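Box S2. Input/output pair 1.
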Amino acid sequence: MIVGARRAGLSISETADLLGFSRTTISRVYREWSEKEKTSSEWQFCGRKCLVDARGQRRMARLVGADRRATVTQITTRYNQGGQKSISERTVRGTLRQMGYSSRRPHRVPLLSAKNRKLRLQFAQAHGNWTIEDWKNVAWSDESGFLLRHSDGRVRIWRLQHESMDPSCFVSTVQAGGGGVMVWGIFSWHSLGPLVPIEHRCNATAYLSIVADHVHPFMTTMYPTSDGYFQQDNAPCHKAGIISDWFLEHDNEFTVLKWPPQSPDLNPIEHLWDVVEREIRIMDVQPTNLRQLCDAIMSIWTKLPEECFQHLVESMPPRIEAVLKAKGGPTRY
């Protein structure tokens, strides 16, 4: 642009005003072009040569792939073993960032056996053609525990942006009860249902009371034409004989959805628990006892916006598709 302006007859001052550069810059650039036909800067060739070349980056990528939980210190030590040139942790950190790696928490997924993968795949195949209208007929339920004092014990891993669902980036979890306050909840696309505190361990007797006092009226109200499905996971208290007998007696009013094991990623109510948890953690005044924690949970639940839980139900087709794509394996949900 400088050369073009000068060749068009503009003076140095006019070119400087037009392009916003100093007169010295205009003069220097035009002179170097006239004398040396120079058209680019050589600044990119200045500075210290990169210590980690393409071959070194490939080696570093192999080290990260072999141990996703390695710290920068560990990666640096392993990289320098047997190498001709040693590099610092700062160089390793900068190289990893340049390669696109970042330190993130691993994606938490259930520990799935081959049998459970098969059952999850069969469920997804059986419901692969269900539309959002079909899923609106399902009432989702679950128990969840909330801790009075939260501790996440975070683990960090190295991964590329697109590697969140790579098996080496997972940290397996198993189901566990307990927590400061245990609650049971139910919802469907049409409405939030009741949230029931569970004072003690949720055994078959306690769950039978929940089913009779809360599930039954919710299902008959939401689905008066008996076209509703009730979803529950495979917790031991849900599979007890007295529970199965109760559902059998009321099978003319609604259907119990046959649910695959270890499938919290398919149950949208899990995301509602996350919403409640986040709302608790951002409260200006944190609960200091279990009564306050229970009151906070109940208050947040009743204020959940309709679009929040309706959007979760509408996410079911993509969830099913993700399970099919993973062949029954864990998904990002």
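Box S3. Input/output pair 2.
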Amino acid sequence: MYSPMAERLLVRALKGGKNTKIVTLNGKKITKMPSTLEKLPGLKTLDLQNNRIPKVCPEISTLTQLTSLNLGNNLLEEVPEEMKYLTSLKKLHLFGNRIHRFASGACDGLQNLILLSLNNNQLTWIPPEVSRLKSLTYLSINHNWLASIPRELCFLKNLSELQLNYNQLICIAEEIKFLKNLQKLFLVRNNIEVLPEGFCDLINLRSLDIAGNVIQIFPSGNLKLREFYCEENPLLMKQPVHAVKQEGVWRLQEITSRFIMNQLAEKNLFLMQAFEWYPQVRNIISQGRKCAICGKSFLAVWLECVEFVPPSKNWKISRNLQLVPLRILICSYKCFNQRGPNVFGIAQVESR
């Protein structure tokens, strides 16, 4: 169960009693977590990585002063329920196990956790309860089997770095826009096709790596990136579909909305005053967008296009990245026919 070296180190730690703050039993071929750890109530750091531990002992729940726990490279199959009792825990390393689920209630008491590493496991989903990790700033779940992430993860307002490389993600929740403090986002080697529009609301995002996905177009916006990597995505092929059709007949609502929005933009006093009396109309008009060619407003009918633009000079990028495809919207085929050489049509869209 323990090697002679592990036993000696454990005996030495136990002699210190409540004064023992750090226990390191890294790579000692331990097959069972020592239950005698309960005799170390003052323990702050516990390092048990690189062993053969299949589950934690119940006695770990007594270590309420523990701030750092490393159980990386063991044989755990779940994020243990006992974690909820470690209310002082700030760093939890569970990388390199066989974890495929979170035990019920595992996140309940981890309000002080700032770092969680779950790399190289077998997770196919993350429970909504992850939203209880209110202090989390760093989350890494690389090399798992995730097909999606819960929208609740997007409400971790303190999260500054999120790593989801080498999973099976096909989309990113629109709610990602609520991660206002996110600075680094890594989505390498997934199956992501589209980045949500809310992506551009990540005002503090500085590093973005989306290499090895199937992304064809990048949402337009004012991201202040310093690092941007997008190798092995179709967006570098510059082969969008041309979609040129005859102008359709607009609905009365579209015609009226365009007239009102453009008159408001020109400061029509009569409409501006009348506008205040009709909140329902105001709500509809607030959903309007602007044409990338003429700058005029439209409501529900547009042409979705892609414009290839040079990346910002401030970005640290791959050498072969010369143009970035940004999603733009055009109000009519009249404007579409006035587009520049780097604007390509994708599809006509009409919201219902």
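Caption for Box S3: Residues 238-247, 347-352 have pLDDT under 50 and may be disordered. The longest strand covers residues 301-309.
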